[in-house]
Amino acid sequence: MIGALVVAVAAYFVAVGPLRRRLAPGAPFPRRRTAWFMGGIAALYLLDGSPLHALAHLDSPNLHAMQHMLLSYVIAPVLLLGLPRWAAQPAVAAPSVPSVAHGLRHPGTTVGLAVAVLAFVHLVPTYDVALASVLGHHGQHLVFVALSLLLWRSLVTPTEPADGGFAAVVTGFTPAAGSHPQPPETRGAPFPVGRLARDAPAPYDAPGAKRRVLLVSDNRDNPNWGSRATTMALLELLDLAGFAPAERVMDAEVRTRVAVAEVPAVEGLLRRPALARLASAALARGGRTRSTLERLGVLDTASDDPEETVRRWRRAHLEPLDAWIARVEHADAVVINGEGSMIFTSPSRLEQRVHLAVMQLAADAGVPFAYVNALVSDPAHGPRNTATLEATRRLLPRAHLVTTRDPWSHAFLQELAPGTHPVYVPDALFAWYGRVGAAGELLARPDHLVPFHPRPERLGAWGFQRPYVCVGGSSEAAKDPERALTSYRRLLAALTALGYPLVVTISSTGDAFLEELAHELGLPMVPATTNALVAAEILAHAELVVTGRYHPAIMAGLGGVPCVLLGADSHKTASVQWMLRYPAVHVFPEQPTDTDVDAILRWARSVLADRERWRAAIAAAAAERADEARSLAARLAAIAEPLRA
Question: Model pTM?
Answer without folding.
Answer: 0.68
